[in-house]
Backbone:
């Protein structure tokens, strides 16, 4: 068979497929009568084709795909997160900024527990309580952090108490605004306003 032309092999396959022409079939049959190797190969092809045709058609069940997918290993959470970050870079950056900013703000709020106040010459301090004495006038804004404020005299400006309490005597007086900040979000808003005022003041001085 090794010496036979490839054309004869092609004719055999055409015959098995049912596509052979009468001319090619005549050539094939004449060759098979004179070549034992090709005859043996042709018979093997016929047996193989018959076996394939006799095998019943196997159809997969309707839930075959679902069962296979269920048995596949689950995607690791890290891979899922990486894919989400890759597909949503802007949202990932915004989320990271919010997390870092939130952690920074919380840390500042927790660490900023030291008692402090605006230094004025006519103020009195007892423990963690700043006192505006009766008959005294404090010029300018007054800020008290992590302590209390008792006003018996006059404050010619605004008063802000952070993380503390304000006590006003009957004779006490404040010409400006009075603010008590005991929540983190109030403190954050206060810090933003202070920062904005400093920026505006800087540009005004620069002109």
Residues:
């Amino acid at each position: 068979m090794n010496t036979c032309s490839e054309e004869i092999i092609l004719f055999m396959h055409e015959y098995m497929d049912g596509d052979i022409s009468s001319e090619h079939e005549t050539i094939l049959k004449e060759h098979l009568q004179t070549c034992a190797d090709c005859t043996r190969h042709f018979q093997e092809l016929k047996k193989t084709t018959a076996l394939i045709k006799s095998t019943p058609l196997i159809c997969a069940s309707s839930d075959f795909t679902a069962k296979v997918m269920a048995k596949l290993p689950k995607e690791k959470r890290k891979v899922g997160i990486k894919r989400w970050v890759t597909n949503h870079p802007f949202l990932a950056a915004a989320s990271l900024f919010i997390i870092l900013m939130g952690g920074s703000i919380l840390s500042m709020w927790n660490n900023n527990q030291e008692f402090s106040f605006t230094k004025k010459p006519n103020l009195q301090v007892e423990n963690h309580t700043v006192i505006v004495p009766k008959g005294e006038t404090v010029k300018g804004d007054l800020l008290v952090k992590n302590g209390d404020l008792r006003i018996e005299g006059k404050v010619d400006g605004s008063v802000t108490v952070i993380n503390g309490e304000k006590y006003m005597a009957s004779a006490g007086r404040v010409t400006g605004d009075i603010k008590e900040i005991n929540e983190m979000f109030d403190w954050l808003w206060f810090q933003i306003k202070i920062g904005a005022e400093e920026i505006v003041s800087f540009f005004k001085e620069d002109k």
The helical segments are 6-17, 22-32, 36-54, 64-71, 77-87, 89-111, 184-206. The first strand starts at residue 116 and ends at 117. The mean pLDDT is 77. The chain is about 50% helix and 15% strand.
